[in-house]
């Protein structure tokens, strides 16, 4: 990760029309339809952007979209990158650095996750209040990180309190169930064993997934206010564990997506 690489990608996108964006959005598994609500001005495949990784997950679109939503200029990542695709943590989080360099002042993140807290049900949404990094590394662990921000980034409050309060108020107003909890990030792509689910519960996790935390760490490194919401696509009960059904997980995410879109659109209108 160097300034020259960041500058090359940023300059390319500015030339393509990604001008003065206000909000960055990362869309996770089964949550790509927010872009249909945009007044799209530019859409570029990740493969065409210098130094960008390429999404290898079949249900991630792999496009960077720029346009207007609720009166705000936004950049939407339609699909993200994961450690389990073979990328390193600097590559996974490179798009967050690019969006910040382009000018975004807030970052909204979505993901699909499994419910460790069995009071939370399949199809519910969870606002991230805190997280546990179990991915075995940090996106800030590289030699020149101090060129981009404080090496020893504080993480006592990784999710922006003001944005979280706004989101909770919106959910209450819209009569949308929105839990608040702790998200554990693992490497994947394999799903967890019964013993691992029990461990995740013991250490205080309410949900588990394979993304988001590296992006949030980098957002904090860049002093970029960030908020994240999980769609809970399955219930991870170690005493009644069934083989994973990926099509069902994608279907649950799709069914919950309208609620996520309502929350994100309303929040964007208030930022």
Structural summary, described in words:
- This protein has 271 residues and is α/β, with parallel strands linked by helices.
- It has a single domain, classed as 3-Layer(aba) Sandwich (Rossmann fold), CATH 3.40.50.1580.
- 31% of the residues lie in helices and 24% in strands.
- It is built from 6 helices and 9 strands.
- It has helices spanning 3-15, 89-102, 161-174, 194-202, 213-221, 246-270, and strands spanning 23-27, 39-45, 63-69, 72-78, 106-115, 125-133, 178-185, 207-209, 226-235.
- The chain has a 5-stranded mixed barrel with strand order 5-8-7-6-9.
- A hairpin with a 2-residue loop joins strand 3 and strand 4.
- Helix 1 (3-15) packs across helix 2 (89-102) and helix 2 crosses helix 5 (213-221).
- The longest helix is centred in the last third of the chain and has 25 residues, at 246-270.
- The radius of gyration is 17 Å and the shape is globular.
- The model has no long low-confidence stretch (mean pLDDT 93).
- One of its GO terms (cellular component) is cytoplasm.
- Pathway: Purine metabolism; purine nucleoside salvage.
- Its EC number is 2.4.2.1.
- It comes from Flavobacterium profundi.
- Belongs to the PNP/MTAP phosphorylase family.
